[in-house]
Amino acid sequence: MNEMNSRLSSAISGTPRQTVLGQSVVLKGELSADEDLLIEGQFEGTLSLVQHCLTVGSNGQVKAEVKARQAVIMGTVTGKVSAREKVEIRRTGHLVGDLATGSVAIEEGAYFKGSIEILRDETKESPRVASIHSAAPHSSAPHSVASRSASGTSE
């Protein structure tokens, strides 16, 4: 056990905490974590790493609904992947399923079959739109918003 801990700590020293499911691990069920996760074995079920990164290693096989901040796929994933920031499918990666993410990168040689939904942060745009609508008078004139001065009076 001491040798295993030293290998793990040396492998991840200087990096954020990361849990590793090794090549011989087969796990089914629901898994959530408050740290990054590397899967080199097999997992089936649901994965929730909302604030963290999921990495599916080149030997990893995942059949799951995934929710993460970021996902890096070098192995095989089947299922829906939702990643708030980014999904990367590397050259050795194989993904069959739908993506919902802020950004996606698919390397040459990677395999992907499914749909992609790019998520946008609409909270930045909504207040601006709301303020334009609230500044508009109840007139049907098409230039009514443009003809308003900074003080709110008509020019």
Topology, please?
Layout: H1 2-12, E1 18-21, E2 26-32, E3 36-39, E4 42-56, E5 61-73, E6 76-78, E7 81-89, E8 94-96, E9 99-101, E10 104-106, E11 111-113, E12 116-118, H2 126-135
Parallel strand pairs: 1-3, 2-4, 3-4, 4-5, 5-6, 5-7, 6-8, 7-9, 7-10, 8-11, 9-12
Provide a brief overview of the structure.
The chain is 14% helix and 45% strand. By secondary structure, the chain is mainly beta.
Task: Provide structural commentary.
Residues 1-13 and 123-155 have low confidence and may be disordered. This protein starts with a helix and ends in a 20-residue tail after the last helix. It has helices at residues 2-12, 126-135; strands at 18-21, 26-32, 36-39, 42-56, 61-73, 76-78, 81-89, 94-96, 99-101, 104-106, 111-113, 116-118. It is 14% helix and 45% strand. The protein has 2 domains: 2-118, no CATH class; 121-155, no CATH class. With 155 residues, it is mostly beta strands. Strands 1, 2, 3, 4, 5, 6, 7, 8, 9, 10, 11 and 12 form a 12-stranded parallel β-sheet that branches. The chain has 2 helices and 12 strands.
* N-to-C span: 79 Å
Shape: globular
Q: How many helices?
A: 2
Number of domains: 2
**Total DSSP E strands:** 12
Helix content: 10-25%
Low-confidence sequence ranges: 1-13, 123-155
Rg over alpha carbons = 23 Å
Give the SSE string.
HEEEEEEEEEEEEH
Biggest beta-sheet profile:
12 strands, parallel
From the structure provided, what is the oligomeric state, counting identical versus distinct chains? single chain
The secondary structure category is mainly beta
Q: Strand share of the residues?
A: over 45%
